Amino acid sequence: NDANDSDTINVASGIYNENININKQLNVIGTDANITASSGSAAVNIIGTNNVKIEGFGIITNNVVIGIWIAGSSNGENSSNNLEIKNNEITVNGVSTGIYVAHSNPSHSSWLIENNIINSKGVNLELYDVNDVDVKNNTFKGNGNSVSVVYSSELSNVGNADFLNNTFEGNGDIPGVTPSFWIESDFINGDADTSVNNVLIQ
Fold first, then answer.
1. What pLDDT digit, counting tens, does each position of 78-101 carry?
2. Residue 188 confidence (pLDDT)
3. Distance between CA atoms of 160 and 86, rounded to whole angstroms?
4. Which one of 5, 72, 75, 172 counts the least CB within 10 Å of its CB?
5. Is the pTM of the predicted complex or chain greater than 0.90?
6. Count of alpha carbons within 13 Å of 97, Cβ hemisphere only?
7. Is the CB of residue 116 less than 8 Å from the CB of residue 87?
8. Rounded distance, CA 188 to CA 190, Å?
């Protein structure tokens, strides 16, 4: 609570049994730091702020707790721009999501999700209403027979999304059962008034 916008918080090695709320423009850097959560909606909550970096954490959740959750206008919060999630290992032991992004208008924008390992029995990564995003060099694991990555427009038109050099192990890698990617406009709302454009997967 004492941090100011643009501060860097270096988190020392250790196990932190808590839920983290970030509502300021912060760089939060872990060094062999592990966050565990068995209650609440998510281990890490990013709420209505821009210019946030989360790097170097082990995040472990139980029950149906999400790893990292980013709020949006559907929660009465501002969208989040210029977000970086890098070099984390997220393990979701229940049927929940590794990284979940809430619906938002205007869209979230200018994100980098890089070099993470996400292991979940549910969906690894759910990106709703995120425009201009690079998702690269991540490893998506799981044994829940779920799709690995969802990219969808709900309340905003989105695009300019690059998914590069990601590895899929488990979720979304079961022939005839589930796809690795699910890309759709209005995946939840179903009113077909937003669109997805310019998506690169390689």
1. 999 999 999 999 999 988 999 999
2. 67
3. 20
4. 5
5. yes
6. 19
7. yes
8. 6
